[in-house]
Amino acid sequence: MIYLTIKGDSMEIITSLNNKWIKTVSQLRLKKYRDKNNLFIMEGIRLVEEAVKLKYSEVVCFISENVTEKERIQNLIKNGNLLKWKILFVSEKVMNKLSGTKHTQGIVAIVKKRCINLGTLKYKNNERYVFLDEVQDPGNVGTIIRTAAATGMDAVILSKGCADPYSEKAIRSSMGSIFRIPVVTDVSIDELIKWKNETNIFFVGTSLQDAEPYTQISLSGCCMFIFGNEGNGISQKILNISDKKIYIPLKSNVESLNVSIATAVILFYYS
């Protein structure tokens, strides 16, 4: 287990690739370590600025020495210290090791996940949720999280088998929206069925079979929009418990839309 020891006034300079923090970042590139330690990594000025805006306190931030004079970086250092972040300055060589991109902006951070499960979600005041059934592309997952936040959804719920929303690609695709909307992960179908039975949330599945055009139904009360795997769609088990099935009519013999595009069309219509 990795523990974040936060000291806001820490001004260490790291030049060794064998430093424990550098090894920690390498470990967190693997899902099993992110899950075990309840941590994830993010990279880039804009994403770290989002963590500042939302006053995330448990953060370890790595900054390359060659970008410390930039105004936005100086503001991040100032605000990070106010939030009691652990700020570590690193050499350019170390930053290149830390970075998951070809053209690094010179800033990487370790952030603690929020602990959210189905039991913590509200379901009494017209809440709107999104459920992803084994959506496997992390770019799609991140984009859908961003769309859900933009359309005022109350949470995104991911089934077992979905891409990890805390992977670097998903974090980049969400553009920081993972900080702005609750995300529940690794939910089994049995857990979902139990939750539905306890809450009576109205399930709206997306399907081409026995479905109505998405513009032809009206919704009220608490409901959840369900989107399926890129190749196979929603599993039959989940379709069986859906209260209503909808689809997006397409022209020019186009068979289907990318799941993140389909999600955007439907969520913006019902937002």
What structural keywords apply?
single chain; 271 residues; alpha/beta; 60s Ribosomal Protein L30, Chain: A; Alpha/beta knot; 2 domains; seven-stranded parallel β-sheet; 10 helices; 12 strands; 34% helix; elongated
Protein model, in words:
Helices cover 34% and strands 21% of the residues. With 271 residues, it is α/β, with parallel strands linked by helices. The chain folds into two domains: 93 residues, 2-Layer Sandwich (60s Ribosomal Protein L30, Chain: A); 153 residues, SPOUT methyltransferase, trefoil knot domain (Alpha/beta knot). The strands form two sheets. The chain has a seven-stranded parallel sheet. The protein has a five-stranded mixed sheet with strand order 1-4-3-5-2. Helix 7 links the parallel strand 7 and strand 8. The protein is elongated, with a radius of gyration of 21 Å. The mean pLDDT is 92.
List the helices and strands and how they pair.
Blueprint (H helix, E strand, L loop, with lengths): L12 E2 L5 H8 L3 H7 L1 E5 L1 H9 L5 E6 L6 H12 L3 E5 L1 H7 L8 E6 L15 E6 L4 H13 L4 E5 L8 H7 L8 E5 L1 H11 L2 E5 L5 E2 L9 E6 L7 H6 L2 E4 L11 H12 L1
Parallel strand pairs: 1-4, 3-4, 6-7, 6-11, 7-8, 9-11, 9-12, 10-12
Antiparallel strand pairs: 2-5, 3-5
Helix pairs in contact: 3-4, 6-7, 6-10
Average pLDDT: 92
CATH T-level fold name of the largest domain: Alpha/beta knot
CATH class of the largest domain: Alpha Beta
| CATH structural architecture of the largest domain | 3-Layer(aba) Sandwich
Helix/sheet category: alpha/beta
Oligomerization category of the chains in this entry: single chain
Number of helices: 10
